[in-house]
Amino acid sequence: MPIPLYGVFGASGCGRGIMPLLRAQLHGKANADQIVFIDDAPPASQLNGHAVLTWAEFLARPASERSVALAIANSSIREALAQRCQEAGVSLLAVQAANVVQMDDITLGEGALLSPFVTLTSNIRIGRCFHANLYSYVEHDCIIGDFVTFAPGVKCNGNVHIEDHAYIGTGAVIKQGTPAKPLVIGRGAVVGMGAVVTKSVPAGVTVVGNPARPLVK
């Protein structure tokens, strides 16, 4: 009899960090054979106790339903994979650590991946396929778009708007905005590792340093 099949797309670093969270989340609901890695170029046939399948192999396995966590850091690839899933009738799977803190009035889009020690406080709106890595937080009254990535230790303070496909690097700090004038990180912008963002960042711009300034190439 077909049974549900769960996949973590990406057998590299990000996926290997999400797999044990998914396994814990499904404890008592699925066995190891129902939980697999998916990779377009599988590095091995088995990894950390789970089969590694190509996308075609994942779709070919008998299953009553299929769902996938998109553990790919590159947001453009993540969006393309989300489209691939939609076309194949595969649902996006949200995964979060047991110790994630969600406080009050939080909306999370489908496919969010929340690593250990992530905190979301209150009155927050987050789009599709958000990645929040270890020890990141989002403070009150923030709006975060689709396919946004937080590397470990990101500190996003209140009244911040982060547009689609932005990438916030490890240890970055985003200063609090105000209700009348939120601090905005534009679409596709990159905030470098350890940067301290004190003012809005235009779309597509990379900023680095303390205070953060546009990267001069």
Automatic annotation (TrEMBL):
Q: What Gene3D superfamilies does UniProt report for this protein, alphabetically?
A: 3.40.50.20, Hexapeptide repeat proteins
What is the top-level taxon of the source organism? Bacteria
Q: Which GO terms describe its molecular function?
A: acyltransferase activity
- Site: Increases basicity of active site His. Where? 141
Q: Which residues form the active site?
A: 140 (proton acceptor)
Q: Write the record's keywords in alphabetical order, separated by commas.
A: Acyltransferase, Transferase
RNA-binding keyword on record? no
Hey, which family's this protein in? Belongs to the transferase hexapeptide repeat family.
The protein in question is named Sugar O-acyltransferase (Sialic acid O-acetyltransferase NeuD family)
